[in-house]
């Protein structure tokens, strides 16, 4: 079972449908016990970083996500929450599962939020991207981007007024800034890889 963390700020319906499409049993839950028992966990997110952390704390989900040891993927805001902190709306601490901070997207005069398709350049050897071409178009909607302390965790980058990090991995932890559930065939293939890792 793949648990989709329900904290009231995720694009959960399309994420659940995409996971089911690639063969997963997906369950939307805010039950820490169900999250702990899952084969894999998806942390979705749409909205502001500080409010997301407030909601995770209010619903008693911080420890459940932090302590989960199986394959975990953060999507869009969910990826940003994996890091130590964000400067958004005055700043807030994150889950701290990955070292680094989230900053406003350095778009160099381009429209923010950035909404649309970006060519993602992948590094070699990441199991999450197995079978994907070296460059794939993925659908992004964001105003902020993570800046990891350790460049070795970066497996995907894209350009929007400048280079930004759009995919990371460390051990069983994965994060993607784009929406794989909205990214057609290649996005579904990435989710299929995640489901395989969780099986």
Keyphrases for this structure?
about 200 residues, alpha/beta, Rossmann fold, 9-stranded mixed beta sheet, 4-stranded mixed beta sheet
Descriptive notes:
The chain is of the alpha/beta class. The chain has one domain: 3-Layer(aba) Sandwich (Rossmann fold). 26% of the residues lie in helices and 35% in strands. The protein is built from six helices and 13 strands. The strands form two sheets. Strands 2-1-3-4-13-12-11-8-9 form a nine-stranded mixed β-sheet. The protein has a four-stranded mixed β-sheet with strand order 6-5-7-10. α1 links the parallel β1 (2-5) and β2. The radius of gyration is 15 Å and the shape is globular. The N and C termini lie close together (9 Å). The model has no long low-confidence stretch (mean pLDDT 95).
Shape descriptor: globular
Total helices: the number is 6
In terms of DSSP E residues, the strand content is 25-35%
What is the arithmetic mean of pLDDT?
95
- Give the count of structural domains: 1
The run of helices and strands is EHEHEHHEHEEEEEEEEEH
Briefly, what CATH class?
Answer: Alpha Beta
According to CATH, what is the topology?
Answer: Rossmann fold
Low-confidence stretches: none
Radius of gyration from CA coordinates: 15 Å
Report the biggest beta sheet as strand number plus sense, adding barrel if it closes. Answer: 9 strands, mixed
In order across it, which strands form the biggest sheet? Answer: 2-1-3-4-13-12-11-8-9
Second CATH tier, the architecture: 3-Layer(aba) Sandwich
Compute the separation of the termini in Å.
9 Å
Extended strand count:
13
State the helical fraction.
25-40%
